[in-house]
Amino acid sequence: MIQSVAFIGLGAMGYRMAAHLPQHFDTVYVWNRNFEKAKQHATEYGTQAVELEQAVQADIIFSCLPTSQEVEDLIATVQIKSGAVWVDCTSGVPESAKKLSQQLKASEVDFLDAPVSGQTIGAENGTLTVMIGGEAAAFEKALPAIQAFGKLIKHVGDSGAGFAVKAVNNMLLAVNLCSVAEGFTTLKAHGVNLHEALDCINASSGKSGVTETVLPQRVLNREFPLTFALPLLAKDTGIALDLVRDAKLSAPVIALTQSLIQAASNLAEKDSDFSSAVKMYESWSKITLE
Ligand code: NDP
């Protein structure tokens, strides 16, 4: 039985994910580096804003930080309750998950890599996809808490497997983003109406999440709302490329896409949404996708 849960990292994703927990558990601790956010969360959702030392005394401890580095740094500073399960929803590095899982075993703490997909709207609606790596018993133990914000929840393998699936998923998003930017600047160069073209493609075999949502809802309307930062996508494509290299495989599309997304991220203004990657193509072609 889970008596208490905690959520560490109330960013664009974490703030919304943690909001579902009080509907299922009486004791929900939240902690954030900028502590005002934790206090605001407590006021808004009835969670308890507590010091980090107290948050890590919960039975199930969630984290959702930018990268595995912040998770490792934070774990190094705390004494986690014996018997707890740490569920890391960061889009992290598989090797780091394996390392933390081994390291925490000494304190009888289980570590699950449990990255999520579905963007901020999925976090808000509690409909995220959660891909989980780690031991089956820890997965079963944490599942009732994960169900608070997850809709499709899959145990995909041993430690690191969840992070690997997430990195490959985001690489596929990045490949689509680049190819859609190239395809649609080409169409515009040929005088094609992009909105009509998009309708045709979304009823045809070339459709993807990028054509169905990113292009119409972020690019063609020129809104580029910041919900998933472009440097975070560049981080994910880097993790995917490292996985390819670790396996000594050839994956030229992945290597090229990682370069393109990293370049787009380097060129982008501060606080750019991932969809802003198309602006690199717009500056090359002098064509605006609208
Ligand atoms: P945000 O940048 O919005 O939030 C980051 C969170 O991490 C904040 O709570 C921030 O605290 C905290 N943080 C940053 N650095 C540190 C540190 N050194 N020590 C302690 N806390 C720290 O990121 P997102 O919520 O967008 O993303 C979080 C993770 O989820 C990333 O791995 C991302 O790739 C992944 N993700 C994001 C999605 C999205 O649509 N945004 C979708 C799916 C996955 P503070 O408030 O103090 O800055």
From TrEMBL:
The keyword Ligase does not apply. The keyword NAD applies. SUPFAM superfamilies: 6-phosphogluconate dehydrogenase C-terminal domain-like, NAD(P)-binding Rossmann-fold domains. Residues 5-157 form the 6-phosphogluconate dehydrogenase NADP-binding domain. Pfam families: NAD_binding_11, NAD_binding_2. GO terms for molecular function: NAD binding; NADP binding; oxidoreductase activity. Keywords: NAD, Oxidoreductase. PROSITE patterns: 3_HYDROXYISOBUT_DH. Residues 160-281 form the 3-hydroxyisobutyrate dehydrogenase-like NAD-binding domain. Signal peptide: none annotated. The active site is at 166. GO terms for biological process: organic acid catabolic process. Belongs to the HIBADH-related family. This is 3-hydroxyisobutyrate dehydrogenase. It comes from Acinetobacter kookii.
